[in-house]
Amino acid sequence: MAKRLLDSFRTLKPTTKHALADISNSRLLALATLEIAESEAGLERLSAEHIMACLEAAGVAVKKLSITRALAASKGAVSSRREDGEVLYKIMTKGKREIVSILSGGTLSVVRIEKDQPRTARLELKEILSNLKGKVRVCDPYYGVRTLDALDYIPTHCTIMFLSVNASDSLRKLEGAIKDFKKERPNSEFRIADKKVGIHDRYILTDAALIILGHGLKDIGSKESFVINLDYSLTPDLLKSTMRSFDDKWNRAVVI
After folding, report:
1. Contact indicator for 204, 211 with CB cutoff of 8 Å
2. Among residues 243, 224, 247, which one has the least CA distance to residue 235?
3. Tens of pLDDT, residues 70-103
4. pLDDT by residue (tens digit) across 168-180?
5. For 44, left (φ over 0), alpha (ψ -120 to 50), or beta?
6. What fold, for 2-103?
7. SS3 256
8. How far, in Å, are 45, 56, 73, 152, 183 from residue 29 at the CA level?
9. Are strands 135-139 and 86-91 parallel, antiparallel or unpaired?
């Protein structure tokens, strides 16, 4: 576990390492480390010593005492518990929201998808989806077997919540494909909403960003469209309201 954890920090993208190096606040530095450990290595709890070692692996020097003091004062942003005489910390939603813009760089990106270039479009889509972290909510009115090919670009450590309304392939064919998908990706779930709910928009939502899709996942590249990536720090209210809307529809939808 220790090797996997440290390797995750050694191999971080240069932009992420630079973002960590630029953080002068010990509290934010600890929160960022906890978030990266969870999203990149799948480890939810770290000790102050673990955090110090992770940052050192990423090329950032910090004292254990400053981390301990910072986390002790981070009520609501982290939870803590004692195991084998050691205090372990876990980042909570409040903490994630504090550092999401720091790690993502607070960016807005727009990708133009050309008509009749499905292979190029999927390469563009892969570039976007392969960088997602945490819980991934996907809303797409129409879905088919090729939708699963696109969802496979999402890292395996992510939790996928896929919400749709209409099937473009036969249900028998889809049921088998989804069953196979969930066998290899048990942290994924598919639900169908009632058509009266009114799902029309196509988007992908995480705690860090809202990705607006101009075309469905299964047919991306068949028509000209855009993929717009909005960082949380740019439109926090939009992300929060979209998440509430998605969760409301999700709770009323039927599991496939």
Report:
1. yes
2. 243
3. 998 888 899 999 988 899 999 998 888 778 767 7
4. 877 788 889 999 9
5. alpha
6. Arc Repressor Mutant, subunit A (1.10.10)
7. coil
8. 15, 12, 14, 31, 37
9. unpaired
* Residues carrying CATH 1.10.10.10, the chain: 2-103
Indicate the pairing of strand 225-231 with strand 209-213. antiparallel
What are the DSSP calls for 151-184, one per residue? HTTS-TTSEEEEEESEESS-HHHHHHHHHHHHHH
Give the residue carrying structure tokens 């989804």.
Answer: 178
Between CA 99 and CA 167 the distance in angstroms is: 38
Q: Is 212 helix (H, G, I), strand (E, B) or coil?
A: strand
Q: Which residues in the chain are classed under CATH 3.30.870.10?
A: 107-255
- Answer yes or no: are the C-beta atoms of 115 and 222 closer than 8 Å: yes
pTM (two decimals): 0.61
Q: What CATH number should be reported for the domain whose range is 107-255? A: 3.30.870.10
- Which 3 state secondary structure label does DSSP give 46? strand
Tell me, letter by letter, the H, E, C secondary structure of 102-159. HHHCCCEEEEEECCCCHHHHHHHHHHHHCCCCCEEEEECCEECHHHHHHHCCCCCCCE
